[in-house]
Amino acid sequence: MDSDFIVRLAALLNEKGLEVKTFEFPYMQKIRAEGKRRPPDRMEKLLIAYEQAIVSIADGKQIFIGGKSMGGRVASLLAAKNGSELADQHKLIKGVICLGFPFHPPKKPDSYRGDHLSDIYIDTLIVQGERDAFGTQSEVVEFEFSKRVQLEFLPDGDHSFKPRVRSGITLEQNLITCSKLIVKFVEAQLCK
Questions:
Q1: What distance in Å separates the CA atoms of residue 28 and residue 13, rounded to the nearest whole number?
Q2: Residue 34 banded pLDDT, cuts 50, 70, 90
Q3: Distance from C-alpha of 35 to C-alpha of 41, rounded to nearest angstrom
Q4: Which of 89, 99, 75 is nearest to 6 (CA)?
């Protein structure tokens, strides 16, 4: 939650009037405390942790949920999940924002992780770098998505939206573009 990517993007969104709240999954808290790398928890535990964060943050208000990479995947799975403890509270979730969605592990396109996006019923924005190793633009445009999913691609961006120097684009430019896409998405959902 304190990565350069998240800190900078949150600052850009705050400048545009959006309040951003971050949290860490329990396994990340353990990494921070122990200083040792560890694998993520199983998806069920991640979903529970995210759901608890939503309940504590939402406080009865409509919110947008999302995250970077796995955080976005967990948010979208939670939003798509039927039978969730949030089933009665789904009205709290106004939209989902996924940044650098991990559609598949790098170099393993057959291990697709986005099946739930074909029938997700909550408006979802996915912002992806054009050359993201977890799902390049040429791969992603071939996937099946619900009509509620909006895809946007950042020029020459990798999984963290960083372009190559020779592209003539900077990471800051891609983060600014990303923040504008998020603001436009949020404003469109709030007008519904």
A1: 24
A2: confident
A3: 17
A4: 99
